[in-house]
């Protein structure tokens, strides 16, 4: 097997996902190393895999096979094996069809209610079937008596049934990290029945919310004419059920709370507060006082600033000066997303621009730190989205900037976790407004970084997290006016009221961590398979 040369304990739990939690770094000369991946799945199950020494993770390596010789592949495998990971190597056309094609161009948009973006292409469907089969073949020699297999997400919907055919009694779970659409949307997929049959190979089928679970059950009823009982159990054969339930995912609360207090995160937070004029800093103390902004504003309005600069008694200037006396303290707005069209970045930027227009008193006094991590850059739709976001940021900055203030700080690189937590901690308001999102971990991470402190959350009603974080400013992410108003209110809220809301939400997130999520799912899986076995013995 892949593990011959490494000291790895024979596994009890095998996690299977499209990508592994670590990616290859370095090269043959410097030696291969592995770095932690960014993204919801790695963040959520990574900690479980790290602490459970008997847990093995199987997934695509993400590397281009053509770049390495056999010897190098061997040492890459060994590097992965030391992290209890088994990498799969896929050829270029396999990646194009299964990953970029069917997973990203068909299932991702369809499941996020973007049916107009979904591509239905028989050849990518063929490759999706083929790669799911490759996963099944790779797993076959790894699975032993007593193991449990937990398959993740929409990339591997056929795998449960493929494994079931090989291992009729293997306890197997499948969890979907994205929404499951309504049956009316789902039925438009030409291969809808095949995918449902594939998933139903699992004993336990998990979703983030009761709504997604209900959509799945309705689709099974509509398309396969099988009805679940009141406990969400779908009868499969005489001796097996597939049970459907909701398991809302959580975060490692203490990790985010702790990281936000690390020296680096604190330094980052301080830097942001200085630059935004929230805290007097060495470099920006004079240029960003309320009065100098008011002066700059009056001068900018006049256009020919040099002719007025020396004029003491300009009426606009006098007005601006008296307004400066009533200015609010400066504020920071933050957001962290993968640059994905489901995250609603253009809509959010329009709402931010609208707020500066509708409430000009915020000009010079609110700075938006927008971290948009690159994602799926080789897909056209994502490239267009990047252009659109670049343009909107440019337009807003161009239109509203003062001499000493820029409204949006835009970062399109991936940052390590400490600066990310620094950004969260610096935010008086977090704007988390996806158009559709399975759960959304960012909202929860922001709150953990504000443990026991103030800081407001503006949250889309189109994500799973909105079911739990009910004290947030909940908005329809398509409604620019509503988002603009919610942002304004979130900026105006008193620290005491925002703390009160946060404490309620934080208590809920603390009680449902990522570790508990994994444990709950696996317990439930153990239970449904034991029940199944008991039933079988009875017959
Ligand atoms: C899928 C579902 C579901 C982002 N940029 C950086 C960075 N991140 C981290 C965040 C967060 C994660 O990535 C993103 O998680 P989300 O939940 O917001 O979204 P998806 O990636 O779309 O995840 C989603 C999730 O799976 C889990 O089931 O909630 O609905 O779509 O953890 O912090 N982390 C670092 N640097 C960055 O630049 N270090």
From TrEMBL:
One GO CC term on file: cytosol
Record's keyword annotation contains Glycosyltransferase: yes
Top-level lineage group: Bacteria
Keywords: Glycosyltransferase, Transferase
EC number(s) recorded for this UniProt protein: 2.4.1.15
Enzyme class: transferase
GO biological process: trehalose biosynthetic process
Keyword rRNA-binding: no
Membrane-spanning parts: none
Molecular-function annotations in GO: alpha,alpha-trehalose-phosphate synthase (UDP-forming) activity; trehalose-phosphatase activity
Family affiliation: Belongs to the glycosyltransferase 20 family.
Protein name: Trehalose 6-phosphate synthase/phosphatase
Source species: Bifidobacterium minimum
Interval of the full protein contained in this chain: 20 to 558 of 728
């Amino acid at each position: 097997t892949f593990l011959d040369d490494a000291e790895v304990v024979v596994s009890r739990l095998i996690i299977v996902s499209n990508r592994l939690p670590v990616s290859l770094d370095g090269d043959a000369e410097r030696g291969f190393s592995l770095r932690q991946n960014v993204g919801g799945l790695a963040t959520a199950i990574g900690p479980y895999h790290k602490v459970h020494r008997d847990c093995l993770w199987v997934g695509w390596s993400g590397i281009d096979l053509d770049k390495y010789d056999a010897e190098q592949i061997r040492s890459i495998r060994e590097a992965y094996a030391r992290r209890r990971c088994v990498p799969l190597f896929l050829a270029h056309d396999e990646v194009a069809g299964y990953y970029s094609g069917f997973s990203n161009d068909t299932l991702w948009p369809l499941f996020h209610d973007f049916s107009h973006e979904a591509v239905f292409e028989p050849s990518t469907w063929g490759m999706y079937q083929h790669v799911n089969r490759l996963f099944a073949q790779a797993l076959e020699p790894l699975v032993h008596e007593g193991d449990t297999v937990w398959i993740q997400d929409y990339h591997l919907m056929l795998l449960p049934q493929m494994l079931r055919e090989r291992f009729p009694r293997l306890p197997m779970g499948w969890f979907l990290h994205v929404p499951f659409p309504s049956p009316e949307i789902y039925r438009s997929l030409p291969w809808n029945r095949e995918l449902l049959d594939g998933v139903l190979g699992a004993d336990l089928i998990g979703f983030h919310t009761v709504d997604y679970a209900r959509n799945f059950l309705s689709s099974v009823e509509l398309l396969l004419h099988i009805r679940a009982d009141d406990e969400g159990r779908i009868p499969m054969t005489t001796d097996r059920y597939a049970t459907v339930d909701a398991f809302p995912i959580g975060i490692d609360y203490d990790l985010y709370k702790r990281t936000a207090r690390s020296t680096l995160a604190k330094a980052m937070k301080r830097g942001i507060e200085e630059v935004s004029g929230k805290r007097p800093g060495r470099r920006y103390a004079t240029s960003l006082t309320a009065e100098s902004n008011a002066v700059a504003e009056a001068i900018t309005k006049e256009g020919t600033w040099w002719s007025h600069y020396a004029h003491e008694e300009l009426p606009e200037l006098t007005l601006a000066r008296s307004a400066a006396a009533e200015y609010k303290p400066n504020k920071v707005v933050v957001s962290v997303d993968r640059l994905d069209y489901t995250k609603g970045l253009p809509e959010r930027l329009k709402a931010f621009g609208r707020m500066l227009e509708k409430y000009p008193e915020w000009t010079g006094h609110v700075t938006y730190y927008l971290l948009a991590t690159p994602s799926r850059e080789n897909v056209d739709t994502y490239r267009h989205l990047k252009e659109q976001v670049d343009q909107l940021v440019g337009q807003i900055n161009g239109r509203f900037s003062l001499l000493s203030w820029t409204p949006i700080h835009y970062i399109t690189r991936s940052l390590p976790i400490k600066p990310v937590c620094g950004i969260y901690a610096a935010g008086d308001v977090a704007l988390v407004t996806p158009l559709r999102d399975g759960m959304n971990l960012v909202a929860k991470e922001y709150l953990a970084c504000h443990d026991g402190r103030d800081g407001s959350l503006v949250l889309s009603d189109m994500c799973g997290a909105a079911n739990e974080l009910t004290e947030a400013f909940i908005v329809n992410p398509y409604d620019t006016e509503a988002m603009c108003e919610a942002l304004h209110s979130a900026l105006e809220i008193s620290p005491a009221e925002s703390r009160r809301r946060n404490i309620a939400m934080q208590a809920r997130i603390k009680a449902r961590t990522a570790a508990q999520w994994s444990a709950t799912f696996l317990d439930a899986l153990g239970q449904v398979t034991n029940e199944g076995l008991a039933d079988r013995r009875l017959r």
